[in-house]
Design brief:
mainly beta; 0% helix; elongated
Length: 93
């Protein structure tokens, strides 16, 4: 498992539905990227100018909503992860 540094967060991205409620399959090219996921790991926190570390607002296991075009996509062992800065997390669900 990856260990994020500083104020970075590793999120396992939720899978989007591959078919509509009516049963129609949605092709990969038409599926939208999920903006929800579960926090899998967090870094040690951002270091402020005075040398103290800012604690995280999220913790491992939180289900979160993140900005649409944020972070770095990571595919490890068939699982989709996103490595992003804590400031790109919009809400805890």
């Amino acid at each position: 498992m990856l260990k994020p540094l500083a104020d970075r967060v590793l999120v396992k991205v939720d899978e989007e539905e591959t078919k509509t409620k009516g049963g129609i399959l949605i092709p990969d090219t038409a599926q939208k990227k999920s903006q929800k996921g579960t926090v899998m790991a967090i870094g040690s926190g951002k270091v402020l100018d005075n040398g103290t570390r800012l604690p995280f607002e999220v913790k491992v296991g939180d289900h979160v909503l993140f900005a649409k075009y944020s972070g770095v996509d990571i595919d490890e062992n068939g699982e989709k992860y996103l490595l992003l800065s804590e400031r790109d997390i919009l809400a805890i669900l």
